[in-house]
Amino acid sequence: MIELKKLVFREYAIGKMARRARAFAKMLQCRRTVRDFSRRSPPQEIILDCLRCAGYSPSGANQQPWHFVVIKDKAMKHSIRLAAEKEEREFYTSRAPEDWLQALAPIGTDANKPFLEAAPYLIAVFQERYHYDDEGKRVKHYYAPESVGLATGFLIAAIHNAGLVCLTHTPSPMKFLNTLLSRPKQEKPFVLLVVGYPAASARVPELPRKPLDEVVTIV
After folding, report:
1. For a disulfide at 60, which of 107, 114, 143, 214, Cβ 3.0-4.6 Å?
2. Separation of alpha carbons 176 and 124, rounded Å
């Protein structure tokens, strides 16, 4: 059984609570997906602290079904770029339905992914579908996709809070990450995060966000 401990909860006055909530919303309002990265590298400890934030995410039955691989080696980033672009070329030329290509057209993406080498860090996020206990028994993970999605959200928010930018990259399929990074078969690639500073010339599209009253219902 898990030991229960008294919750340490710090309550704020309503005014301070409102200011903190609004400030956090404004901070995240400035978050943008970036595809042009500087080669300047932030300290690794900052990346690790962002990953600590991801590890504080809730998960089904507290199974924490995630594994993060931080890639900074130039040769490995080059290998990942080659493998990702191979999948992307097949996606854009034969796999993607026409309506999906039309949805992507305004953003201007294609099969070329130079950011996979330009950025100082890649973070491969893996979803652990099961693990083995101390007796070698296979233990299924419950709500693994939802749990890893929550952890990835925590990670993206932490990266932005630290003053860095990132890109969520999901070439399909991503099994090549298991091979290149020597990850076991029970781990499924979830997303590849590209992390660093934006290039001085970085440009981002003006993408409108849905207004709050369109995405929120209060009953």
Report:
1. 143
2. 11
149-186 confidence digits (pLDDT tens): 999 999 999 999 999 999 999 998 999 999 999 999 99
* Amino acid of residue 32: R
Note the pLDDT tens digit of each residue in 113-148.
999 999 999 999 999 999 999 999 999 999 999 999
CATH of domain 38-199: 3.40.109.10
Single-letter code of the amino acid located at 6 = K
Tell which residue, 59, 65, 27, has the closest CA to residue 159: 27
Do residues 75 and 66 lie in contact, with contact meaning Cβ atoms separated by under 8 Å? no
The answer to whether 155 and 193 are in contact (CB under 8 A) is yes
- Give the integer Cα–Cα distance in Å for 196 and 35: 10
pLDDT at position 102, please?
86
Residue that is written with structure tokens 């990835």 in the block = 152
- Answer whether 111's CB lies under 8 Å from 92's CB: yes
Residue 116, SS3?
helix
pTM: 0.93
Q: What is the distance between the alpha carbons of residues 158 and 165, in angstroms, rounded to a whole number?
A: 10
Which segments of the chain does DSSP mark as H helices, in order? 14-29, 44-55, 74-90, 98-104, 115-118, 144-161, 176-181, 212-215
The residues spanned by each domain of the chain are 38-199
| Predicted confidence (pLDDT) at residue 205 exceeds the cutoff of 80 | yes
